[in-house]
Amino acid sequence: MPPLPPGVTAQQFSNALREFGSAVGPEWVLSTDEDIRTYRDAFSPFWEEAEEPIPSAAVGPNTVEQVQQVVRIANKYRIPLWAVSTGRNLGYGGAAPLNSGTIVLDLKRMNRVLEVSEENAYALVEPGVSFFDLYRDIQERGLKLMLDLPQPGWGSVMGHALDRGVGQGPYEDRFGAHCGMEVVLPSGEVMRTGMGAVPGAKSWQHNPYGFGPFVDGMFAQSNFGVVTKMGFHLLPEPEALRLVTVTAPRRDDVVPFVNTVGYLKNAGICPASFGIRSPRNDTGYWSASLKFYGPLKVIDAQWEHAQEKFSAIAGVRFQEDALYRFPLSPDAIDGIPNKNVLGIPDLAAFGQGFVRDGRPHGYGHYFFAPIIPMTGEAMLEAQDVFEQAFKQLELPGRGPVGFTGWQRRSLISLISLPVEHDTGKAQKNREAFRGLMRIAGEHGWGVYRAPVVFMPDAMEVYSYNNHALRRFHETVKDALDPNGILAPGKCGIWPRRLREAREARA
Amino acid sequence: MPPLPPGVTAQQFSNALREFGSAVGPEWVLSTDEDIRTYRDAFSPFWEEAEEPIPSAAVGPNTVEQVQQVVRIANKYRIPLWAVSTGRNLGYGGAAPLNSGTIVLDLKRMNRVLEVSEENAYALVEPGVSFFDLYRDIQERGLKLMLDLPQPGWGSVMGHALDRGVGQGPYEDRFGAHCGMEVVLPSGEVMRTGMGAVPGAKSWQHNPYGFGPFVDGMFAQSNFGVVTKMGFHLLPEPEALRLVTVTAPRRDDVVPFVNTVGYLKNAGICPASFGIRSPRNDTGYWSASLKFYGPLKVIDAQWEHAQEKFSAIAGVRFQEDALYRFPLSPDAIDGIPNKNVLGIPDLAAFGQGFVRDGRPHGYGHYFFAPIIPMTGEAMLEAQDVFEQAFKQLELPGRGPVGFTGWQRRSLISLISLPVEHDTGKAQKNREAFRGLMRIAGEHGWGVYRAPVVFMPDAMEVYSYNNHALRRFHETVKDALDPNGILAPGKCGIWPRRLREAREARA
Predict the structure, then answer these.
(1) Which CATH class, in words, describes the domain spanning A10-106?
(2) Is B245 exposed, middle or buried (0-12, 13-18, 19+ CB in 10 A)?
(3) Which tens digits make up the pLDDT trace of B483-493?
(4) Who is most buried in A375, A485, B60, B136, counting CB within 10 A?
């Protein structure tokens, strides 16, 4: 039997499920053991341990009105909901909630592409729309628009942005590329943000701000509402994409090397996300992978300018990896290994995710993802600090060699820890993960997101002025969600009635 | 005698001023009639009428700690505060509060440039830092960075962004270009947002988001806190700037014409803000002013590409207005009429602001500023709708001829109404202003900001689902500011104890 929500009797739970069934259709209330299994985190750091969070059921509304009804029923019974959209979120917690007994609010049926404008280069989508869905829609209508994709493509366009994921191209800051939201609040009321608050709004997907406070950010990585519609700005299909690699030979080159890459991004000359590594092999000590999207003559000029700038570093080398012209023919697409840089979603990432040190690794991984400044000094410091931390925490390897440049002036390193099914090893890795977050915090670094089960730990690091930011969140939480029914504990934000346990520990 | 805050006795007020004096220094508590005069709105639509909001005093803290003390004293006495930074905000309400008796919290003494990084192209500033101040700081240090400026340059870098003003270059979305905030909350507590919530944060001005909900937007156009520090991303000094004008001859050209300009912005080929007009003279029916910032060879390629795209419109004409190479010599700068496109602040805008129809106009103006989609169809519709509205409201002229493209996919038209010192005329213009907002709302358009005295009217238009957004704001307001001491009524957001009047009217 799946666990019940805390403080809810079996009879109340059964009544609630019946009411959910009236709202969404009984076939969309999923509560058998088999149903529940699909909502567990396949990469859970607590796999099969007592602490592994197991949902009590899942409910799948098909419309905004049904989401509102579900939220109202949850309030009536004080049953917590955990909203998920589509995709698997592997490495960051899957579809599983933070607390056993929570009901998963599965939004995957709401998968309508509501509007796509080629003229103003935007899309308005529901939560269940995957990158595949949106890509297909755009192709079928023959619109000259490109998606800015993560790996892999099955994820939700909206969910990925709300978790502040990153894309491949010039619109890499996926949350930053959104424009306009519709949100079901914890009260069950529906709200539209930005220009969408004007009835019959004409510019909801044109200007993100509207009038007065800009509230959209409150619904990212949050438990303040369930986002049911969201607009996104898209890149007009470029003429071409050029992929290049630049290498620099010496360790000391890192400062001017990263400065040059940062300058190209900050000046809008190469605004896409980029990778930068110290591969320690014959391609050079430092290596940067850059992507230029645009009219051919413009990207030629940009690449030429980039080479001039890099040439201040003695021994720098340039390699042109590929040049793609759009539109691509189906045949051309077939032969391309890394399609997502072209805005074509695929699942090729899974060729990598299950392989560690060249050997298949069956249990998955979870991500430690600290944000550091986009400077060579910060990269060297992070490599040193985490190399020490890896030793201290008895983790294999030497820590980060690669960084990705994204979200304005920041670099991120994705460090994956293996999921273990041996309890002792699993426990050790969890402690190592918490240790990495703590050590990062001691150096002024925090993570950009975290696996669900580690979210409260991640927020512990964001503690300036006795956790002023978390206290702000929790003041807002209590005001908006007095019954604490939306995703209690998500990102460390607990409703009043569940805060006591944390405060007792502190 | 200046008016007292509502519900506060003369004795209490006098005690409060003494306490404010202990906090900030008695010389920075300003309460004589002469002091107060400088905080009136020189362009008030209610000039010298009973309804003109007159502050009771002004208090000028010099540090974050002093801001905290002032806020705590205001809570003790239930005295409302209205935060202003520096500059005049002419046309949008000046330094005057919404309600008579409010104390102006004048932050102009806090004018320190705390940090400027050339490497990561950002600045961290206090509220009183003007564009002049920041420009001077950057020049003195010889940093290769450019400011993205409004007109005129005396305004606060922070205040302008918090009001969601617009700049001239690729970082035109000034609020969007910010990264990291420090905020004094209505409780008097200080909070840092984004990565700044990590003690000793290393990437506060590098990544805007941090972990968990992204709260910064809540402090723009808002009364939820007093922002005391704010980071901004800057453009690395470009090699060159090319100014061009493109014209198209026929009214029907507007759809492809605006589409082309929009494509150039959305694709990052010409991301700066732009102007588009129907000048009805021999330069063509439609005219667009574009700005290309970057390496010379890149902007040459961008401009060439732009011309190819525009050439699909028969009869289109191109004019190269100026080409500037950086760095500019002081002599070169002297001779340039419109310096702010070059990132050099000036006050030249005031040559225009006081002139109407070629004649000097002494009393000023206030701005009606609706947001519409960036399409030719929307421009034509707005021109028609507002031409009708002008007739109906008996306003002189024919309504908007010019639009500015900014903040992603939106066009804005700045329509100025004259301030009148004759009560009858003033009343008529105020009614016309409210009429324009109402008519805009009927067509699905809202304003991006409004003169302070019209803020509650502006928010009336953002009424989707029985004012769900405003109710959200007011729920948050009551939770954060239970005494309602920060800027009551700003953007139509009233604390609980002052909402009854509005609700009685409705």
Answers:
(1) alpha beta
(2) middle
(3) 999 999 999 99
(4) A485
